[in-house]
Amino acid sequence: MSPLSKEVLIFSQIFGGFPLTSLGNKKLKFSLPVFWWGLVLTALQILTTEIGLYTDYRKKLAGVPLRMFEDISIIVVVLDFVSLKLMSVVIFISCSRKHEQFINILDILEKVDQKLHKKLPEVNAKAKVLLVSIVITILITGIGVLDFQRSVFLGNKDYISSLCYIPPLIMLFSQASLFLHFTQVAQSIATRFGIIKARVKEEVLRNRRERPRNTHYIRIANVPHNNKGLYTIHEVESLMSAFWMLCDAVHQANSFYGDQLLSVFFTSLVHITISIYYLIGSVILRQSTAITVLGGLAIAHIAHLVLLVRPSTLVAELADGMAPMICKLINTGLDPILVERLEELLLQLGKRKSRFSALGFFQLQNSAVIKMAGAVTTYLVVLVQFQLEIVPPEFFISVT
Question: E-assigned strands of 124-271?
C-alpha cells in the first residue's frame, strides 16, 4: 500500500502547495514550480483575507456592515479568518521546510515492506478526495448564499462586496489537504503495525505447536533446541526490527506534522465555537437558512477532527498492544531461548512509545477530541450567558 496516493498528492499540490512531485518510480522529490505555486497561493489567500476584512470594516463605517455589526462581531470575524490564515501559512512553510522528513517517512515504510516481504495494494483515494471537495464546495456556497441574503435584507446594493469573505474560504481546501495526506500516512503506519503484530503472534504460536510435548529441555550455551526454534527467533527479531523502524517513522511524522496539527486544532476550536455560538442565535430566531449553513459547518468541523485523530489513535493502540500480547504468549510453553528474546523485547517496548502529537502539547487520540469538546462547551456557556444579547438580531437574519 503506497503511503501517499496520486490523487491525494495532486490535491495537496493544488490547494496546499505541497512542494513534492512524483517520479517515474513513485519516489517523491522537491518541485520548485509547485513550491512557487504554493507561495503565490498562500500570498493570495492572505491578500484576499485582508481585503475581505477591510471591505467589511469600511461597510461598517458606512452603516451597512456585512458581519461586523458590533465590537463582539468584529472580534469574532477577525479571529475566524486570522486563524484560517495562520493555519494556511503554517502548513505551507512547514511542508516546504521539512519536505525531506516526509520523504524519509516514505523511505522507512518502503524498507518495512521489504522486511515484511509483502507488497501492500495501492489505495484508491479518488472517492475520498471527491467527497471532501464536494463537502467544502457546498459549505462555501452555503456561506456565500447566507452572506448575500443578509446583505440584501440590510439594503446593501453592492452585491459584489457582500461576497468579499468567499475567496478567503478557499483556505479550507488547504486544511483538507493536510487532513488527506496525514490520515493516509497514519493509516499506512497503522496497517503495518497490525501486520507485524499478527505475524509475531503467528510465529510464536508456531513455535509452541512445533515444540515436542512432555520433553524436558536442558539449556545449553543459549542455543535453541531445534532448527525450527532458531528460525522462529530469527523471524521474530526481523519483525521487531521492522516494528522499531515504524516507531522511527512515527517520530519523523511528529517532527513533520507537529506544528501543522497544532494550528489545525486551534483553527477547528475557533470555528466550532463560533459556528455553534451563532447556530444557537439562529435557532432562537428560527432562521432556517442560517441554521442549515451553520449547522452543516459545525458538523463538518467536528467530523474533520474525529476522522483526523482516528488513524493516529489506531497507531497507538496497535503499538501499545504488542507488549500485552507478548506477555500472554511468554507463558505458553515456548522455547527457553525464544522466551529470553521476548523478555528483552518487552524491556525495549516499555521505553519506546509510538504516539502522534501536536508539537508535544497533546497526543492525537480520541481523548483530545473529548477535551476539546469540554473546552468548546465552556466557552459556549460563557458566550450564551453574557454576550448573546450584544449581538443584534440583524446578524442572524436572512431573507426567507
Answer: none
Half-sphere exposure of 19 (CA within 13 A, CB side): 23
Tell me which residue of 49, 56, 122, 37 sits closest to 84, measured CA to CA: 49
According to the model, what pLDDT value does residue 16 have?
A: 84
Main-chain phi, psi angles of 312, to 5 degrees: -70, -35
CA 241 – CA 246 distance, rounded (Å): 9
Give yes or no for a contact between 188 and 311, defined as CB atoms under 8 angstroms apart.
no
Q: Which residues of 83-104 are buried (b: 16+ CB within 10 A; e: fewer)?
A: bbbebbbbbbbbbbebbebbbb
C-alpha cell at 260: 501543522
Residues 6+ apart with CB under 8 A from 305: 265, 268, 272, 369, 372
In the chain, % of residues over pLDDT 70: 84
Contact 239, 117 (CB under 8 A): no
How many Cβ atoms sit within 10 Å of the Cβ of residue 395? 21
Please write the tens of the pLDDT for every residue from 232-263. Answer: 778 878 888 888 899 899 999 999 999 999 99
| Distance between CA atoms of residues 319 and 193, nearest Å | 6
